[in-house]
Task: structure prediction
Amino acid sequence: MRIDIISIFPEYLSALDISLIGKARTDGLLDIRVHDLRDFTFDRHRTVDDTPYGGGAGMVMKPEPWALAIEHILEEVDSRPRLLVPTPSGAVFSQGHAQRLSQDDHLIFACGRYEGIDERFFEWATNVCDVELVSLGDYVLNGGEVAALAMIEAVGRLVPGVVGNPDSLVEESHSDGLLEYPVYTKPSQWRGAQVPEILLSGDHGKIAAWRHEQQLMRTQQRRPDLLS
Ligand code: 6GU
Result:
């Protein structure tokens, strides 16, 4: 899978060099390229923003550098990429999004800052990409970079081969619409707390039933919205 990220803070994305995603890049499973939006400006100050028409606080990102950056990326491919725009006014990103996006060949993340990107950019982009506005949740970050990191990790780990043991993708929170069951490791007795007896019983049927019960209880208690 190819992933392009456009940002005015390309250094923010250096976290993608490490751990699981970094390994997937060196293994050739993920082709991740980071672009500096300011490379697509031509004035002395490399300007990417300006004041909003109609007034108001903050600055708005100019559409032209974004269009040039996308055109630069499109020159290298012949398919129609998906353009993901992290924004608190997008649809809330979920495991379902991650699963769907992990099937794509090419994602582009446009990480905006300030009050957002000139609306005309989105209209233009729909001619060359499948555009989706996505949010991490109902709170405000300073820009799309942290959100893009989260989404790329959620998507990237579902690309076949990125996670060594694919079984670990099956029994995890949200993969079946429920929260994960509690887990334990050695020692069986720790500071007076005992591992639930059933997990030591060797009865795999009973263990599976107990774990499912725990999933339902946890989800009911912490995330009742997932059950309705
Ligand atoms: Cl995707 N972007 C920004 N700037 N803030 C957010 C967000 C995204 N998701 C939640 N808050």
